Amino acid sequence: MTIYNLGSINADLVYRVPHLPGPGGTLAARTLTRGLGGKGANMSVACARAAAHCRHIGAVGPDGQWAVQRLMEYGVDTRAIANAAEDTGHAIIAVDDSGENSIMIYPGANQALSEEEIALALEEAGPEDAFLFQNETNAQRAGAEMASAKGMRVAYAAAPFDAGAVRAVMPLLDLLFLNEVEAQQLAEATGTAPEALPVRDVIVTLGARGCRWYNTDTGAVQDFPAVPVQPVDTTGAGDTFTGYVMAGLDRGLPMAQAIGQATRAAAIMVTRPGAADVIPDLRDVQDFSG
Ligand code: ADP
Ligand code: NA
């Protein structure tokens, strides 16, 4: 079975600076590290690290072959990554000595996906496959409609949050991932609590407090405490969590077990600086003694 992930691919350019640059200021950065990021890429790598077959649907620019190469090295099926004329998406991240950061994202190729390419990528997909997406690309609704029409399990990680974007796809969803703030924003925008949403499974992640799973079919609500760790960098924890849940379900695990594995993977991720490049694999998760 395949997880088709329609998602962003970014270069995370992390600059270490003595202080964050202000308006009109010029500043020399001490170091630059270039990592693979973007919620889409992070989730695809998490799916692959968790032993699922994941086909990433996305685009990079002429400067983005290194990102495709890295995704491939991490086990992601990259055949449905298009070459766009736009620059590869990137995040310019300044981090100061106190750990405070400021981030500027350029979506670039992530907003240049064509519906034809998505249709082509989904050509062989069927009801045993899953479709995952986030709010960092264009053509989300078109992709979700195609997947739903094929009977695929449709899952949405509603980040970065936009109430209109969630509303547009809500009727197509089988599974919705929200963090605590997103869940609150959605409740305010729709007047509906997670357990009353028209989506069979809703998972609200709560950072260091773990997560809560609502099964709206049965009305069951289940809490999963986080694994206590010393946090170093929470970047990508939510994306790792989502990818692991999707992969667990794909491998036939019941939801509670998939969430259990995802919780351990996300905890490891919190202890590692970086994004896609440091997502743990199943072996790391099994060996993890936290
Ligand atoms: P997001 O990064 O999308 O905002 P969360 O911060 O809710 O998502 O984190 C997602 C999951 O990662 C949580 O449900 C939890 O399992 C794990 N996690 C996040 N922060 C911590 C932490 N400080 N310690 C342990 N686990 C964490
Ligand atoms: Na995160």
TrEMBL record:
Activity regulation information from UniProt: Activated by a monovalent cation that binds near, but not in, the active site. The most likely occupant of the site in vivo is potassium. Ion binding induces a conformational change that may alter substrate affinity.
The keyword ATP-binding is assigned to this record: yes
Single Gene Ontology MF annotation: metal ion binding
Binding site for K(+): 233, 235, 269, 272, 274
Active-site residues, as the UniProt record annotates them: 239
Pathway where this protein functions: Carbohydrate metabolism; D-ribose degradation; D-ribose 5-phosphate from beta-D-ribopyranose: step 2/2
Primary location group: cytoplasm
GO BP terms, alphabetized: D-ribose catabolic process
Lineage top rank: taxon: Bacteria
Cellular component, GO, one term: cytoplasm
Cofactor: Mg(2+)
Domain Carbohydrate kinase PfkB: 6-280
EC numbers: 2.7.1.15
Pfam families: PfkB
UniProt-listed Gene3D superfamilies: 3.40.1190.20
Details of cofactor binding: Requires a divalent cation, most likely magnesium in vivo, as an electrophilic catalyst to aid phosphoryl group transfer. It is the chelate of the metal and the nucleotide that is the actual substrate.
Keywords: ATP-binding, Carbohydrate metabolism, Cytoplasm, Kinase, Magnesium, Metal-binding, Nucleotide-binding, Potassium, Transferase
Subunit structure: Homodimer.
Function: Catalyzes the phosphorylation of ribose at O-5 in a reaction requiring ATP and magnesium. The resulting D-ribose-5-phosphate can then be used either for sythesis of nucleotides, histidine, and tryptophan, or as a component of the pentose phosphate pathway.
Family label: Belongs to the carbohydrate kinase PfkB family. Ribokinase subfamily.
PANTHER family for this protein: RIBOKINASE (PTHR10584:SF166), SUGAR KINASE (PTHR10584)
Full protein name: Ribokinase
